[in-house]
Amino acid sequence: MKDNVKLMKGNEAIAMAAIRYGCDGYFGYPITPQSEVLETLEAEMPWETTGMVVLQAESELASINMVYGGAATGKAVMTSSSSPGVSLMQEGISYLAASELPALIVNVMRGGPGLGTIHPSQSDYFQATKGGGHGDYHLIVLAPSTVQEMADFVALGFDLAFKYRTPSMILADGVVGQMMEKVVLPEQRPRRTEEEIHLQCPWAVTGKHKGRDKRNIVTSLELDSAIMEKNNERFQRTYREIEKNEVRYEARYIDDAEYLIVAFGSIARICMKAIEDARKEGIKVGIIRPITLWPFPYEAIRKAAANVKGILCVELNAGQMIEDVRLAVSDSVPVTHYGRMGGIVPNPQEILDALRRDFIDKPANAQEETK
Amino acid sequence: MKDEIIIAGFGGQGVLSMGKILAYAALENDLEVTWMPSYGPEQRGGTANVTVILSDEEISSPVLDTYDTAVILNQQSLDKFESKVKPGGVLIYDPYGIHHAPTRTDITIVPVDAMEATIEMGQAKSYNMILLGALLKMRPDVPVEAVVRGLKKALPERHHHLIPANEAAIRKGMDLVKQ
Q1: What is the chain B residue with the closest CA to A180?
Q2: Which of A152, A275, A303, B71 could form a disulfide with B7 if both were Cys (CB 3.0 to 4.6 A apart)?
Q3: Chain B, 143-172: which have a CB under 8 Å from a chain A CB?
Q4: Cβ(A96)–Cβ(A68) under 8 Å?
Q5: Contact list, B66 vs chain A (CB under 8 Å)
Q6: Domains of chain B: which residue ranges?
Q7: Do A175 and B36 touch (CB under 8 A)?
Q8: Is A266 part of the contact surface with chain B (CB cutoff 8 Å)?
Q9: Range 153-212 of A in CB contact (< 8 A) with B
Q10: How does strand A77-81 pair with strand A53-56?
Q11: Residue A371: its pLDDT value, please?
């Protein structure tokens, strides 16, 4: 066994990857199913090694506003929570977006609405991808399906956040947060020095220093609507850039596929098992797994849909991502949904049954009607 | 090689730990592995289970509906999982506290008197290791040596002095499986 291969939970991998990224600060409040993020950070005590601050705030509101403060100074800061806690953070997230501040927010989703259950869910898709807080903004949303991706997306999330000066989110679920599997952690990187921050983040509130004689002000408030419209136009230009450059997805078994499954996160893996079983029976199914939920891989799905008889969206919700899939393919192919809610995770057999029910067992004219 | 395993019983019986030690053993043996617990409000007296998949290829779903192997530690879990063992699969269970024994004839059913052996050995905490031994006997997915190395990874250092006792319990469990 290679020494650098570890066995850990997705939540633990996020914590370890944050330390190794050279993250400057974590601010959070415990909530199942992601409490191991904070627990692991506390156990690792990175303040004694890299100097990273780890702080259990008094609430999620405090956490996200601590993130805002840290981000305004150009530091790489993050928080993590689960659905109800992330709802509490939405005001702060909107302020981060409006102030063009980089930060990483992790949501390990649980069943809602309300306090709901503590079991896996994907019912915050709308919240994560369509805004969540008020105002015209987007987060870069990354959906990990393995423990390895939980670790890798910490660096990716931070890098994209700093590149575009916008908060990014890891949208995980209880399955990938709680399961253990093999992971190779990234190499330890040093935290950025003050000089590097001055150089890389000329917008940050670092005070006057050598090479800068004016002070920066970070705020989302702009009472002059003409200027606020200009600000919004700037945000939108950034979003168009992100849409152009940062779409990520995984496609498998697409080439000969007669049916397509679209699913994200850990559920995409359950779908993969269903596809393996289906192919043993000669049913040609492929899968597209969006990795960035925003920007969404519309084009990839449109192309993959060209030769299929139907698309099944599998989600742990009542049907949220399906709206984006429908936008991608218009009315060119029937799109149906299979979802479980409230913390129930489907098994591969259920998914295969849904595919049969919606497309395979249905006579062709019935499919026409669905269209 | 692929073994899809469910381990189920009461919270506090060491169900999750048994799965964890097996997962670490798989890591030691260069296998792919997933360990998916039934996390949540489970507690001592409630039910708990863990799905462990060992494979020499990439593992897709960590969540399953049928299993190659089941290790069952109480009646509720037997009622829930007996029908979920694939035909030709293996069901290992401890008859202690079981009122309705498994009845399927298309799977190999292996009763292991682990509770009795635990009492005999005077080591209540080795209970789950006896059942792990039975599992390793029926499904030699990983060698005992890898499990011992896995124990070193799975247990905090302050408990490493218990590893020989754990190994003895594993070997006892292997012996308890009647051929």
Answers
A1: B35
A2: B71
A3: 153
A4: yes
A5: 349
A6: 2-176
A7: yes
A8: yes
A9: 174-175, 178-182
A10: unpaired
A11: 44
Question: Which of A121-125, A355-359, B40-44, B171-175 has the least mean pLDDT?
Answer: B40-44
The number of residues in chain A equals 371
Q: What long-range pairs does A216-222 form, CB within 8 A, spacing at least 24?
A: A218/A72, A218/A99, A218/A101, A219/A99, A220/A94, A220/A95, A220/A98, A220/A99
Is 90 exceeded by the pLDDT of residue B66? yes
Q: Do B62 and A179 touch (CB under 8 A)?
A: yes
Rounded CA-CA distance A271/A268 in Å is: 5
Count of Cβ atoms closer than 10 Å to residue B143 Cβ: 13
CA distances A122 to A111, A286, B64, Å, are 8, 21, 19
The full set of domains in chain A, from first to last, is 5-184 (3.40.50.970), 250-370 (3.40.50.920)
Quote ipTM for the complex.
Answer: 0.92
Check residue B145 and give its pLDDT. Answer: 94
For residue A75, with 0-12 CB atoms within 10 Å meaning exposed, 13-18 middle and 19 or more buried, which class applies? buried
A348 vs B61: CB contact, 8 Å cut-off?
A: yes
User: With 0-12 CB in 10 A as exposed, 13-18 as middle and 19+ as buried, what is B35?
Assistant: buried
> What superfamily would CATH give domain B2-176?
Pyruvate-ferredoxin oxidoreductase, PFOR, domain III (3.40.920.10)
* Interface subset of A 45-84, CB within 8 angstroms of B: none
Ramachandran category for residue B30: left, alpha or beta (phi over 0 → left; psi -120 to 50 → alpha): left
